[in-house]
Amino acid sequence: MTYLDPIHAPCPDMEGMKNTSPEAVKQALLQIEQLRDAHGIRRRKKPVPKPLHYVCTFSGCSEPWSLQ
């Protein structure tokens, strides 16, 4: 693996990270996904942002639901 920044390179004592093959990485990710399914661990879904649309003037800000 090539790294653009040396801080992202694995530590010298991490022998398993030297010369990793794409097939081994793919297999490891598949096993992790299978373990998540077996133990019921789900990835967290990102919450949908609910922006507040305030209308601001020189006299102050008002909520959008009060303008109707």
Automatic annotation (TrEMBL):
Superkingdom in the source lineage: Bacteria
Descriptive protein name: Uncharacterized protein
Lineage: Bacteria, Pseudomonadati, Pseudomonadota, Gammaproteobacteria, Vibrionales
